[in-house]
Amino acid sequence: MGFLSKAAMSLVVSAAALTSVGMGTAAAEPGPDGYWGAIAVGAFSDFTSYGSAWNYPDRASAEQAALAECGYRGCEVLASWANGCGAVAMSEDKMRFHGGTGVTRPEAERAALDKLAAVKPPLPFPFTGSSSPERGVIKESVCTD
């Protein structure tokens, strides 16, 4: 294959790739409750997987899509919502995850962090260590349209 043939083939392949990437899925019509979203997390010994879905017509579809994107049997939906945002926070020790929802992204992120702080395990000995709530980090947050 000559240089011009290779160049032409490269253009055809590039155009096909751009077309398929840009296709995506058509936006679903909102359901009776509006658009739904969900975030799933799978925490395993050597990695963590996340899956997010938004703009689905119902809760079940959004959760199923988030689990499919998470991609592993051990994934679990930690947040699902209609017409708003969801977030997942991870503890500093990377052992706990909690989801939160809200009307806005900051509200959802705050809700996830607050849930994480509320379930800090008790200390093994009274009056030792810090009494400050567990700090965490937001690992995923998405909003419906």
Question: Tags for this entry?
Answer:
single chain; 145 residues; alpha+beta; 3-stranded antiparallel beta sheet; 3 helices; 32% helix; 31% strand; disordered N terminus; DUF4189; DUF4189 domain-containing protein; signal
Structural topology:
Layout (H helix, E strand, L loop, with lengths): L2 H21 L12 E8 L4 E9 L2 H12 L5 E7 L2 E7 L5 E6 L2 H14 L17 E8 L2
InterPro entries: DUF4189
Keywords: Signal
Protein name: DUF4189 domain-containing protein
Task: Kindly summarize this structure in a few lines.
The protein has 145 residues and is of the alpha+beta class.
Sheet/helix structural class: alpha+beta
Within the largest sheet, what's the order of strands? 2-1-3
Strand percentage:
25-35%
Spans where pLDDT lies below 50 across 5 or more residues: 3-26
- Total DSSP E strands: 6
Pfam family, one: DUF4189
Domain DUF4189: 36-117
Region (Disordered): 126-145
Keywords: Signal
Could you characterize what this model shows?
Keywords: Signal. It comes from Nocardia otitidiscaviarum. This is DUF4189 domain-containing protein. The protein is an alpha+beta fold and 145 residues long. The protein has a domain at 36-120 and 134-143. The chain has 3 helices and 6 strands; from the N terminus they run αββαβββαβ. The strands form 2 sheets. Strands 2-1-3 form a 3-stranded antiparallel beta sheet. A 3-stranded antiparallel beta sheet has the order 5-4-6. The longest helix is centred in the N-terminal third of the chain and has 21 residues, at 3-23. The model is unreliable at 3-26 (pLDDT under 50).
